[in-house]
Amino acid sequence: MIPKVISEEEKYKGDWVTVVQQNVDLGSGKLTSWETLKTKDAVAVIVLDNENNVYLGREYRVAHKDYIYTIAAGVAENQDSEQAIKEQAIKELREEFGFNVKKIEKLATVLHSSRSSTKWHIYLGRDLFDDPLPKEEGEFIETIKLPINEALNLLLSNNSHFVALLGILLVKEKLNL
């Protein structure tokens, strides 16, 4: 039997996340309580140049109290259509790395976790060119260009964002690199 949400109560509402407590009937007569993070969807772009180099960002993240390695990523502010989500991905790339791309294709949409509503829309960008937008306040991202296999090793051996690692693995699989 599929679990059924009996009731929901908003416990916290912030700028980018809402915490909801859900009372759930597991189907066996047993009730339990789950806390779920409700957020907007997110976008991420892995950029591959003509020499199969990828571009990573090294950025300090307060949640980790350390630097992490990532790809261009952010909240999908407008989720009205696939085109709007794609445009948000390009905007993040322009803000964070200063690039735009002539070709962009969706690689995957994945769920963040079992307790979060976030879906990550992951794209591959190619044929890049300079086209920067101003960075968001507080964003200080060092851009690193590496051959794809070196980038993969860097992500595997350091603090890295899961979507960066997944993006590289998806590109390697798609292009047989």
What does this structure look like?
There is one protein chain. With 177 residues, the protein is of the alpha+beta class. It folds into 2 domains: 4-38; 42-175, Nucleoside Triphosphate Pyrophosphohydrolase, CATH 3.90.79.10. The chain has 3 helices and 10 strands; from the N terminus they run βββββββαβββαα. The protein is elongated and about 60 Å long. The model has no long low-confidence stretch (mean pLDDT 93).
Task: Spell out the key features of this protein.
177 residues; alpha+beta; Nucleoside Triphosphate Pyrophosphohydrolase; four-stranded mixed sheet; three-stranded antiparallel sheet; 3 helices
Record the SSE blueprint.
Blueprint: E1 4-13, E2 18-25, E3 31-38, E4 42-47, E5 53-61, E6 66-70, E7 72-75, H1 82-97, E8 99-111, E9 119-130, E10 141-147, H2 148-157, H3 162-175
Parallel strand pairs: 4-9
Antiparallel strand pairs: 1-2, 2-3, 4-7, 5-6, 5-10, 8-9
Helix pairs in contact: 2-3
